[in-house]
Structure formats: C-alpha cells, structure tokens
Amino acid sequence: MTSPGRTSEPRSWAWALGWLSLSGPVLLVAGNAPSLVGTPLVPWASILLDLWAVVSVFFGVAAVAFARDDVESAHDDRPRFVTAGMALGLLGLAASGCLLLLWLLTPLPF
User: By the 8 A CB rule, do 17 and 66 touch?
Assistant: First the structure.
C-alpha cells in the first residue's frame, strides 16, 4: 500500500504481454484436453485455439522486446515487473515451442 502522497510506478507492458503469451499454450492444452477422453471438440473452437496459440508467440516476442527497452531505461523511470514480464514472455515462448515440437512429432490421424 502506498501513502496518499506517493503513487507507485506503473507496471511494464512486458508484464501484460507476458501473461498473454503464456495464455496461448495453456488454453490450447486445456481446450484440447476433453478430446483425450473421447469428447469431440467443435472444429471452429479448435481453429480459434490454434490461432490464439500462434498470436501468443507474437505476444511473447513483444514482451521480451518491451522488457529489454524498459531494462535499458534509467532506474527512476523503470516500470515495475520488468524482469517478471520478460520471464513470463520467455516461458510462453518456450511452452509454444514445446507444443510446436509435439505437433511436428505426433503422427497426424488423417
């Protein structure tokens, strides 16, 4: 909590973009999990989840780029959660990379 005369620094854009980059792989796995037990997935839902996973890669790259810019700024002007945003962006990129590798190595059913 801050005192009434003092405001806290704003959060870095890397923080929000990092969470968005991590949401893509998580939603893709969670959305396709019912198909493992035999419940069919609606085709348009699968396409939307796949598109969101692709977009989340761009969010991860943007999170790292924003975090690098914020780290290079002066310490007094630096927003909060810069390193956490970069870590979330890198974690989202790693999870997307693992899902892509899994997709490439899995035999296609058709």
Answer: yes
Structural contact between residues 67 and 12, judged by C-beta atoms closer than 8 angstroms: yes
- Report the distance separating Cα 18 and Cα 49, nearest Å: 18
The radius of gyration computed from the CA coordinates of the chain, to the nearest angstrom, equals: 18
Distance CA 29, CA 53 (A): 10
CA distances from 3 to 6, 39, 78, 98 (A): 5, 53, 20, 45
Mean pLDDT by 10 residues, the chain (110 residues): 62 89 89 80 82 92 91 81 90 91 74
